[in-house]
Amino acid sequence: HDLVTEDYYQKELKYQEDLDAANNLEEAGGGIRVTVLTEGINIRFPEYMDPEKIEGTVSLYRPSNKQLDFETPIQVSNQQMLIPKSRLLDGRWDIRVYWTYEGTPYLYRSRMTY
Questions:
Q1: What is the rounded CA–CA span in Å between residue 31 and residue 16?
Q2: Contact criterion met (CB below 8 Å) for 16 and 9
Q3: What's the CA gap between 37 and 59, in Å, rounded?
Q4: Would you state the pLDDT for residue 57?
Q5: Distance of alpha carbon 89 from alpha carbon 95, whole angstroms
Q6: Taking the chain, what is the end-to-end CA distance rounded to the nearest angstrom?
Q7: Which residues of the chain have pLDDT under 50?
Q8: pTM
Q9: Which of 14, 23, 70, 88 registers the highest number of CB atoms within 10 A of its CB?
């Protein structure tokens, strides 16, 4: 039998890492809030996390047009980060916020309409 994809094992490992990171966020009580504003998408990180110790990326995927997908490094100011309106078109977006804090990975995923 052939595997569906050549890199099946790498994808399975990545999937497990994502599950673990999402579980870490749930076990920590969540605390991340993503809000759609007229200025863009605001991401608010948990209050107990020192912004200088948060490292990671925010990925936005547009199911209807993969050319609009983009990823940006996390830059936190006052516990929050803004994805500016200029980078977004109206419509549905899938958001993935992946970060590490003091060596622990966290993952937040959601779907939204801008």
A1: 22
A2: no
A3: 18
A4: 97
A5: 14
A6: 44
A7: 1
A8: 0.86
A9: 88
